[in-house]
Amino acid sequence: MYICVKCQREMRCLKNGVDVNFGHGHVYPEDMYQCSQCGDKMLATNGRPIPDPDYKTQDEYLNIIQPKDLK
What span, in angstroms and rounded, lies between the C-alpha atoms of 12 and 7? Predict the structure, then answer.
């Protein structure tokens, strides 16, 4: 269960089968959740990445913006 911190309501699953893309086919399967009160969204990723170099396993991919300096 996922709870919206702002609204203190249970978030509902909005979409299954979205992948978080870290580049070069390094993706994490996930589900997208949304708060029924405020509409904020969150992603719940699988704990393990899967190789998807051709980006063909899901309908939607969210590209992660990497920080320029990893310290």
Answer: 13
Q: Which of 60, 52, 47, 49 is nearest to 18 (CA)?
A: 60
- Tell me the C-alpha distance between 22 and 43, whole Å: 14
What does the alpha-carbon distance between residue 35 and residue 67 come to, in Å, rounded to a whole number?
A: 27
Full domain range(s) for residue 20: 11-63
Q: Does residue 46 form part of some domain?
A: yes
As a whole number of angstroms, the distance between CA 43 and CA 1 comes to 12
One-letter amino acid of 44: A
Residue 33 lies in a domain: yes
Output the pLDDT for position 22: 87
Q: How many domains does the chain have?
A: 1
R_g over Cα of the chain? 14
Q: Whole-prediction pTM value?
A: 0.77
Give the chain's residues under pLDDT 70: 69-71
